[in-house]
Structure formats: structure tokens, C-alpha cells
Design brief:
The chain has helices spanning 3-36, 42-45, 54-61, 70-95, 102-131, 145-159, 173-180, 182-199, 223-239, 267-283; strands at 163-170, 205-210, 213-219, 242-244, 248-250, 254-260, 289-291. It is α+β, with helices and mostly antiparallel strands. The chain folds into 2 domains: 3-131, Four Helix Bundle (Hemerythrin (Met), subunit A) (Up-down Bundle), CATH 1.20.120; 142-291, Alpha-Beta Plaits. Strands 2-3-1-6-7 form a 5-stranded mixed beta sheet, sandwiched between helices. Strands 4-5 form a two-stranded antiparallel ribbon. The radius of gyration is 27 Å and the shape is elongated. The chain starts with a helix and ends in an 8-residue tail after the last strand.
Length: 299
């Protein structure tokens, strides 16, 4: 996840809220039509009424460009059509001079509530994700870190695979802020975060642990593989430059500590082990990778 993605999530949440209000207004107009004997609109009685309402237009023209997963979008489309099919049946029943069957009305209410529930669940998930994201770097913040790591640990244990904690600290970062200002410091944090995303998979976990310290969780790979990922990221960080005043450039290295999350008693122990390994990397001269299991540099 990154800042652009967060903006897309915010837009999606706003759109879902707007469409939820639109659906509620449609239900209000439907009930008024049924109770007060008003002439029904085309979006109530057409055989393809579900594509004529505001929500139908939104699903057709905009929803696929927002941050909604395919399964949720598919469920919304199916549930939305069912709501309209049941609404049309009720309207035609009333137009024919017959009282709406209680079972039909209950089915409509249940389908409408399920439809609203889908929208609200998608909205809540987006808000939770936005709130769990560091706005500067786009990394996840620590609000859900323990839960997310425990889930990954459980999954890896069930699969019989390893999951690794990587603690990363940007070397001499305080000097960057002191000598070049916090604006440059922010650029370094954003630049390093972009490098991380270029070097990990989409399902790997990436958190801003605090200040210039980050935590990654990479699972389903060997010690050799995770060491390779860390080394490539270490080298990329070392090679990257940032422009400062007077046409100058600086580079910022990083120190890495790695611990096997599945080999430790709990998440806290694994984080502490990776943290100690990271400090061992700093003590050994910085700009290197250290495993907690051997206490020696991997590079």
C-alpha cells in the first residue's frame, strides 16, 4: 500500500457512502409508490431496472475503477439485481390490484438489508485500512500490526513454512534531519518505502515501526531467500541518492536484523530478536544484514 492507493481507498469509501444514500433514497421512493399509489418509475418496473437506477449506473461505469475487490463487486451486482427484481414484482402486484404477499415483502426486506450490509462492510474495511496506513510512507502503521503478524504466523505454522521478521533502521537518519531539514528527511522516508515496495511481494507485510524504523514480514521462503531480499534492498538503499541544497546529493544506508517468527515463542519475542540483530548490524558498522540466530552479518 502506498499514498496513491490510500487516496484511491478514500475515494472509494466516499463513493460507497454516496451510493448507499442513493439506494436508501430509492427504497424511500419505492415505498412511497407502493403505499401512496404513485406512478412507478422506469427504474422500478423495467425488466432491466437494475441498470437504470443511480447505483446501476455507478456499478456499470465507475465501480470497477475503484478499490473494490472482484468478489465484493460481483456480490454487489447480484444482490442489487435481486433487490430490483423483487421490487418490480411488488410494484406490478400492486398495479394489478392485488395485495403484496407477506413472503415477497419479507424477501425484499432481507435482500435489501443484505445489499446494504455488503456496502457497509466494504466501507468499513476501507476505513480500517486507511486508518491503519502511515500517510507519509504508505506503509501500515502499528495499529493492527500485532494482529496482522499473528495471522501470518498462524498461516505459516499451518503450512509448515517459515515467516521472517525484518527490522530495518535508516543509518544516521537524525543527521539527515539536522543537516538538511525535515523535508529532505521525509523524502528519504518516502524514497526508502518505495524501494521496499519494489523489492517485496504484494502479500508481504510492511509497517512503519516508528521514526526511521520499519518492520517487514516475509513468509513462505527460506533463510537464504529472505537474506537475498534484504541484501538487494540494502544495496538499493545504499545506491539511491536524494537531492539536497546547492545541487548536492546524499545517500542513506540501512541496517537489517532478521528473525524467524515461527521459531520464537510469540510475536513480541520475534520482534525483539530481530531488533537485537538490527542493533548488532549497527554495532558491526551499519549498512549490513544480521540474522539473530547466528549473530553475524549475512553480508
Amino acid at each position: 500500500m502506498f499514498p496513491l492507493q490510500t487516496k484511491k481507498q478514500e475515494e472509494t469509501a466516499q463513493e460507497l457512502d454516496r451510493m448507499l444514500n442513493s439506494h436508501r433514497n430509492w427504497v424511500y421512493r419505492l415505498n412511497k409508490t407502493l403505499i401512496c399509489g404513485l406512478d412507478p418509475t422506469n427504474e422500478m418496473i423495467a425488466t432491466d431496472a437494475h441498470v437504470h437506477c443511480a447505483f446501476g449506473h455507478w456499478l456499470e461505469n465507475k465501480a470497477q475503477h475503484l478499490d473494490i475487490d472482484d468478489q465484493t463487486l460481483g456480490n454487489l451486482v447480484k444482490r442489487h439485481k435481486k433487490v430490483h427484481d423483487l421490487a418490480r414484482e411488488m410494484v406490478l402486484t400492486v398495479q394489478g390490484g392485488t395485495t403484496i404477499n407477506e413472503a415477497l415483502y419479507d424477501d425484499f426486506l432481507a435482500s435489501s438489508e443484505q445489499f446494504v450490509g455488503l456496502i457497509e462492510s466494504a466501507y468499513d474495511a476501507l476505513v480500517a485500512s486507511i486508518n491503519a496506513t502511515d500517510p507519509l510512507t504508505g506503509a501500515e502503521n502499528r495499529s493492527l500490526m500485532s494482529v496482522r503478524l499473528e495471522e501470518r504466523r498462524h498461516l505459516s505454522t499451518n503450512k509448515g513454512s517459515q515467516a521472517w521478521i525484518l527490522m530495518v533502521d535508516l543509518d544516521h537518519f537524525k543527521s539527515v534531519n539536522d543537516e538538511h531539514g525535515h523535508e529532505i528527511g521525509d523524502q528519504v522516508l518516502k524514497g526508502f518505502s518505495a524501494l521496499v515496495r519494489d523489492h517485496i511481494r504484494g502479500d508481504d507485510l510492511f509497517f512503519r515501526y516508528g521514526g526511521e524504523e520499519f518492520l517487514l514480514c516475509i513468509s513462505g521462503v527460506s533463510a537464504e531467500t529472505v537474506a537475498g531480499v534484504a541484501e538487494r534492498l540494502r544495496k538499493a538503499s545504499s545506491d539511491k541518492t536524494y537531492e539536497v541544497r546547492n545541487n548536492g546529493y546524499i545517500s542513506v544506508t540501512a541496517s537489517f536484523g532478521i528473525a524467524d517468527m515461527t521459531a520464537h515463542r510469540d510475536i513480541g519475542d520475534a520482534i525483539n530478536a530481530a531488533d537485537l540483530a538490527m542493533y548488532a548490524a549497527k554495532k558491526a558498522g551499519r549498512n549490513r544484514v544480521v540474522f539473530d540466530s547466528v549473530g553475524s552479518a549475512a553480508t
